[in-house]
Amino acid sequence: DGGGKAGAAPHPIEGGTRIARYMAVMAEKSPGLELVERSVNGVPGLVARHAGAVATVAAFEVAEGRVTRIWAVRNPEKLR
């Protein structure tokens, strides 16, 4: 969810390989990106910081030990 204020995939990305490829490309475009493991709304998640500011918050839905869905928010108005 970029809310039109931050870049985000225009459609859901499905499949582990496609998600990994998308994440690798995004990381290459953001030198200095820092990822920190955090609980997000009570589930496993990551907080991505760039230049000291929160850029993305992601929450992971997990079933049977596997990530089944990733919810990501990039809209700066929602990351305050």
Number of helices: 1
Number of strand elements:
4
Residue fraction in strands: 35-45%
The percent of residues in helical segments reads 10-25%
Instruction: From the alpha carbons, calculate the radius of gyration and give it in angstroms.
Output: 12 Å
What is the residue-averaged pLDDT? 84
Poorly predicted spans: none
Q: Number of domains in the coordinates?
A: 1
Structural class: alpha+beta
Shape: globular
Side by side, the strands of the main sheet go 1-2-3-4
SSE topology sketch:
Elements (H helix, E strand, L loop, with lengths): L15 H13 L5 E7 L2 E8 L2 E11 L2 E8 L7
Could you walk me through the main structural features you see in this protein, from its secondary elements to its overall organization?
The protein is α+β, with helices and mostly antiparallel strands. The chain has one domain. Helices cover 16% and strands 42% of the residues. It has one helix and four strands. It has a four-stranded antiparallel β-sheet with strand order 1-2-3-4, with no helix packed on it. The longest helix is centred in the N-terminal third of the chain and has 13 residues. The chain is globular. The two termini are 14 Å apart.
